[in-house]
Amino acid sequence: MLLFCPQCSNILTVSPSPDTGRNRFECRTCPYSHTIDKRWYQRREFKEKEREHIFGGKEQWDNADKVNVQCNSSACSGREAAFYQVQIRSADEPMTSFFHCMKCDCEWREN
Ligand SMILES: [Zn+2]
Ligand SMILES: [Zn+2]
User: Fold this and answer.
1) Ligand 2 centre from 104 Cα, in Å?
2) CATH of domain 56-110
């Protein structure tokens, strides 16, 4: 990640603030500095990951890991599902497993 100073357009460096000890962007040329809100970055990362899975398009299933599992839909006889795991809660909680039926394209999850 490369950010530029909004005041003088030089590249910002990251260093801990002498006041708070938290990382901040700092301009070497002018007095500009901006404290990095770590929680904001984590939340943003999670949203982008989730969107990839939901809007990833059909070809993603061809490359996904497959498991032999009975389709969750009672109307479908599919026995092969793409399997993937997503961290939808905080990082220290277990991943949630999702299945995507290769026959009828329905999806379900465990946990
Ligand atoms: Zn600057
Ligand atoms: Zn199915």
Assistant:
1) 4
2) 2.20.25.10
